Each structure stands twice: as C-alpha cells, then as structure tokens.
Amino acid sequence: MKEVVLGVTGSIAAYKAAEIANLLVKDGVNVNVIMTNAGTKFVAPLTFQTLTKNKVYVDMFEEIAYSDVRHISLAQQADCLVIAPATANIIGKIASGIADDMLSTVVMAISGKPIIICPAMNTAMYENAATQGNINKLVSLGYQIVEPRESRLACGDLGKGALADVEVVVAAVKKAIGGP
To answer: Which residues are registered as beta bridge partners of 7?
Structure first.
C-alpha cells in the first residue's frame, strides 16, 4: 500500500484537503495528515481522522507511549508528501530550512522522496517577490509545485492564487507515487 503524508496549512482552501484525502483513500492510499495549528482553525482534525482512519498530527511534542520519533517515522514511511494548501508561510519556512512545527520538521526529515507543494493564497501574496523567490528556490531543490489557478478568491479579489483543482492535486500525487 502506498503511503502519503498530507500537510494542511492555514488557508481557507483547507476544506479542499479533505476531498484530496478522501479521494486518495478511495484509491487505496494510506494517508497520514499533519496539520499546522492555523490549519486546524479552518478544518477540524476529526474530519481527516474520520476520512483516513488515521491519527492526525498537529503537536510535535505530544506525549507518546512508545519509542517512536513520529516526525522521523512519518518521513521514512511516506512515498510522497503533499502540502495542500500551502501558504506563503510554510513555503517560506521550507525554503529557509526552518523546522519549528510538526509539518516543517517532517518535510526536513524526508530525503529522496517527492514533495509536492500546492500554493493557495491571495494573488498579491502569491505574486510577492519573496514568495516567488521561495517557490523558485524550492523548484531548484527538486520540490514539485502544483500551480494555483486563477479564480475569485475568498477575499473577493480575482486572480491567481486559488488552490489547484482537487483532481489536479490528486493526479500529481498519483504520478509521484506511481499509482496506488
């Protein structure tokens, strides 16, 4: 069975991550979800736990009852990690090598496996020179980017920044893992 880690960050598009998880599970993929604290403000971890039948990880320092360094074991067992939605914040952290929460730490612990970043943010944030520089740096390091689409955004603006269609994200993950 293929293993995917799905990172969910603090974007209004976080609700679409539930459908991504659901479609992957229906295709026989084991999905482990890691949420940032901000991500939990948009969608409850229970949603992902129900869809994936797996524990959802948020707190890197929660007490564990066994000798498992979770951020390392999640990284080792994953065939692919996808962050959908990926905010400017998480993109900046990863590009800068910052590992200060469960998601960014797992990203830093993955080696030699595909990492897919699916940006979702306001157009001005997406087009900001710092964000574009961070995305370009990630591409140069081998990260895959699933480009956001142009749409009416939650803030009312019309422009590029909406999370790619769920089917596009799922197709990118399936391609990365060689199918379920």
So the answer is: 34, 83
104-163 tens-digit pLDDT: 999 999 989 999 999 999 988 999 999 999 999 999 999 999 999 988 766 677 778 889
Residue 117: CA count within 13 A, CB half-sphere: 29
Direct distance between the N- and C-terminal alpha carbons of the chain, in angstroms, rounded to an integer: 7
By annotation, the residues acting in catalysis are 155
| The residue to which tokens 């990365």 are assigned | 176
Encode pLDDT of 19-37 as tens digits.
999 999 999 999 999 999 9
Measured in degrees and rounded to the nearest 5, phi and psi for residue 50 equal: -65, -45
Residue 112 in tokens? 């030699």
CA separation for the pair 49, 21 (Å, rounded): 10
Residue 4's DSSP bridge partners are 31, 80
At 95, list the tokens.
């590009």
**33 alpha carbon, distance to own chain's centre:** 9
Contacts of 34 (CB under 8 A, 6+ apart): 5, 6, 7, 8, 56, 57, 58, 74, 102, 103, 106
What is the distance between the alpha carbons of residues 91 and 97, in angstroms, rounded to a whole number? 10
